[in-house]
User: Which sequence fits this backbone?
């Protein structure tokens, strides 16, 4: 009996140790959700690996936390569910900090101040927001640009609005004429148009919005402060500026969000 009890106790201890090992190993991995077709912020290359401005940021953050990064591609709308449910530890996808999002999610400090762009055919007679009146326009579902447009529907007076699940589908409809203007992050639009040879598309209007891009994390995540501290260190030692210049082609402006360490935001201001 004593021998049997000893064996069972040993097996139980081994099981607990094994499970503890699995838990410890899991904590060594930073699980990241990302929309996989959002260049230059994040996208999959020909080998199927993630690349991009925010991919470099989150990879460097994980390195500084002595963790491995594991990026999973998700539909844009699914990113918010994955973060809220704890399925992922962080989300990268040129996400704007908003008051509404802060109610259900946490964000790190911002590292980029964005602007929207209105993409059109180069033959379109659209040179300002007033020219959107009576036009068929579109953007990405649940995105900041979509919210911005819907809040200004009466002011802009556009004829119809179409919501898309991907940038590729949005630009396909723009190119085919199903919509006359695509409103999205201006950096992403310019990058996409540069990759499309003889697309006949251009950014006709720039809309300064001051929206701030950051890494989204589950509400009050235990990793939030550590990730935020890593971002501050990257800003202080020049790493963030190097990543910015690599993907944007120019150095970040002095005093910009890209080089200014900040605390974890509690508001979108």
Assistant:
């Amino acid at each position: 009996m004593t021998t049997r009890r000893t064996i069972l106790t040993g097996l139980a201890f081994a099981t607990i140790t094994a499970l503890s090992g699995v838990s410890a190993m899991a904590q060594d991995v930073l699980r990241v959700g990302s929309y996989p077709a959002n260049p230059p912020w994040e996208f999959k290359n020909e080998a199927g690996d993630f690349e991009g401005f925010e991919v470099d940021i989150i990879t460097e953050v994980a390195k500084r936390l002595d963790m491995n990064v594991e990026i999973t591609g998700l539909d844009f709308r699914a990113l918010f569910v994955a973060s809220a449910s704890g399925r992922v530890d962080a989300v990268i996808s040129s996400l704007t900090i908003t008051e509404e999002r802060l109610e259900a999610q946490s964000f790190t400090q911002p590292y980029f101040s964005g602007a929207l762009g209105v993409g059109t055919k180069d033959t379109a007679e659209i040179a300002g927001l007033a020219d959107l009146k009576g036009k068929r326009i579109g953007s990405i579902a649940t995105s900041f640009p979509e919210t911005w447009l819907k809040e200004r529907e009466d002011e802009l007076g556009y004829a119809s609005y179409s919501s898309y699940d991907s940038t590729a589908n949005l630009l396909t409809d723009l190119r085919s004429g199903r919509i006359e203007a695509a409103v999205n992050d201006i950096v992403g639009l310019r990058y996409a148009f540069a990759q499309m040879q003889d697309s006949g598309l251009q950014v006709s209007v720039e809309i300064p919005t001051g929206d701030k891009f950051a890494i989204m994390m589950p509400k009050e995540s235990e990793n939030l402060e550590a990730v935020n501290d890593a971002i501050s260190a990257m800003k202080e030692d020049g790493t963030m500026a190097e990543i910015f210049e690599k993907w944007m082609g120019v150095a970040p402006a002095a005093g910009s969000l890209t080089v200014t360490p900040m605390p974890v935001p509690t508001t979108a201001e």
The chain is about 40% helix and 25% strand. The chain has two domains: 9-113+213-248, 114-210.
